[in-house]
Amino acid sequence: ETVTEPVTEPVPAAEEEEEEEEEEEEDDLAGRFLRLEREQSALLRALPPFGEPVSHVYHPLDYAWEPHCDFVRRYCRTPKRVLFLGMNPGPFGMAQTGVPFGEAWHVREWLRVVGGVKKPPSEHPKRPVLGLTCRRAEVS
């Protein structure tokens, strides 16, 4: 099991890493799902920025892509009838791990997801991204 300490340099744009990751993605269900997520993330990034009072927006599929991919490749192997409603990543859940509804302890210990989590380019001082080493639990 690998738990990566947070990295302090800014996250490169997702497009720069996209070529390398596309080579790793197969044409299986998980690979198709990950490609679809990348496409949707690009559309979200193209939206105009939020104004006041929003000061920080986290994009965990950019900076927590490694554990997210590990999660998808482990658990998205066969078609499922699932609908996520009201998904709120929360500051101590998906915002830390890149895994939907995934606080760090459960993602690391129960799901056995691994991967490095980088720092987002703009981090709120009260909501630091610690990745899989985060000790706070998401209460939502």
From TrEMBL:
Biological processes per GO annotation: base-excision repair
Instruction: List compositional bias (Acidic residues) regions by residue number.
Output: 14-28
Residue ranges for the region (Disordered) are 1-29
Molecular function in Gene Ontology? DNA binding; oxidized pyrimidine nucleobase lesion DNA N-glycosylase activity; single-strand selective uracil DNA N-glycosylase activity
Q: Does the keyword Cell membrane apply?
A: no
- Keyword Hydrolase attributed: yes
List, alphabetically, the InterPro entries matched. SMUG1 (IPR039134), Uracil-DNA_glycosylase-like_sf (IPR036895)
Biased composition annotated in UniProt, kind: Low complexity: 1-13
SUPFAM superfamilies in the record:
Uracil-DNA glycosylase-like
Q: Which UniProt keywords apply?
A: DNA damage, DNA repair, DNA-binding, Hydrolase
Q: Which PANTHER family match?
A: SINGLE-STRAND SELECTIVE MONOFUNCTIONAL URACIL DNA GLYCOSYLASE
Annotated protein name in UniProt: SMUG1 glycosylase
